[in-house]
Amino acid sequence: ARGKSSSRDVQLKMTIDGQTQSEINWEPDITKNWEPFVSHKTVSFDSSLHNVVLEYSSEDSDKDVKIRRARITAIKLDEYFSNESEAETSLTSSYADKTNVSFTPATDGYYLVIATAELKAGSTTSSIGARLEIDGTTYDEISFEGENSNEFKPFTSHTIHQFTSGGTKTVNLQAFSEG
Fold first, then answer.
1. Model pTM greater than 0.90?
2. How far apart, in Å, are the Cα atoms of 37 and each of 1, 22, 138, 149?
3. Which pLDDT tens digit goes with each residue over 131-164?
4. 112: which residues sit within 8 A by CB, 6+ positions away?
5. Distance CA 62, CA 4 (A)
6. Beta strands in the chain, from DSSP E residues, in sequence order
């Protein structure tokens, strides 16, 4: 998405069957830059019709917001391990688990690992960050300084990871805040 004002938030939301599943908002640094919005949700659908919707707007209706290359993909999963934390939690000055999943693969194989979070800076002078960690090794990491203490910025990571059977595997999504 891209906004035309660096003083008005761009807002993006994903809903499933009318329920908000993910929502971010931010003030554009440079109004010509496109910012990605990526989210995911593991749900169990029955055989009825379901609606997955991406919505976008400006916090001020007279400001121009654009979206491009919008995509929604639904994948049927036969075997998966998932955990999520919907609650807004405070961040500490060092990385701490915000959600994790531990599992024991039945067979060796390659797994798609996806991690997403909505990060909120608590002030305009604090850096915040998030990372994906698999069995103690960091696979992706981001940090940025808050521009507005009310905005949420996305963290999105994915990797194809080879797990071997036997023994517990742990995937962590961790976050921190400087201030």
1. no
2. 7, 10, 22, 19
3. 999 999 999 998 887 776 677 778 889 899 999 9
4. 158, 159, 160
5. 10
6. 2-3, 10-16, 19-26, 52-58, 65-66, 96-103, 109-120, 127-134, 137-145, 152-163, 169-177
